[in-house]
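Protein 1 of 2
SEQ + STRUCT:
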Amino acid sequence: MTLQTMIFNLALGAAMASACPSFAQDSYPPVDVLLQSETTIIGQEIVYPEGPAQITVAIVTMEQGQVTGWHRHEAPLAAHMLEGELTVDYGEAGTRVYNEGDTLIEALGSRHNGENTGDGIARILVVFAGAVGTPNTVSE
């Protein structure tokens, strides 16, 4: 290999490393932000419960036609629809329909009832930002 070829290869490698983040050792992988909000889906300010922080991550699976029953959340939660369709009745705050790919910050301390109104199962990834001793969900 000639000196000229070695210099070309070094220059090409340096150009690729600077142009492609995947070559950089200190770079963070790309992040697709699904949602960033200071309020819930019905416009409430997000307020965290007091106490030692506790994160809960769950996947909720609902059969076609299944309902959650009226309930409320004591801890803020983000939800991402992995599959299916969910219709949620927020009472006076209205009704909303969520489909695969939708992401939301759920109502906090407000009664609501969800129903799988799709043709198959509904799967929802849920992340609660709660506190030890504070229930994430309370049935009404």
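Protein 2 of 2
SEQ + STRUCT:
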Amino acid sequence: MKLTSKGRYAVMALVDLARFDNINPVSLRDISLRQGISLDYLEQIFSKLKRNNIVKSIRGTQGGYILSKNPNDIKLTNIFYAVDEKVKTVKCNKEIKRGCNGKSTKCITHDLWDELETHINSFFENKSLEDLINNKKETRV
């Protein structure tokens, strides 16, 4: 199981945003500088986050982004879904009898990996941005 940089960076950027958006809207440039994420990549990620109502954009010289909801109401699974990130431990579809090994039955350890996927997704469903921002506060750039 592997999360792509898109999913990890989306979480990092939103934690950064959540730490500062109660002051003013946060620019992607500031997030980029603090987190070491390419500005172009952040623009792609935030386009998806905005489309999925996780963030709102504010125009103007003091513009930037703010969260659309309380950080406690934004679960990590919401973020992953918004950026098209899938947490899967097996290639095959759970609902189909055909296995990921190309055979007509699922592999001998399929249920193990399926159970692990359920635990991982449950973990992410129970973690919110609020859980992650309760760490040490950074200073604004």
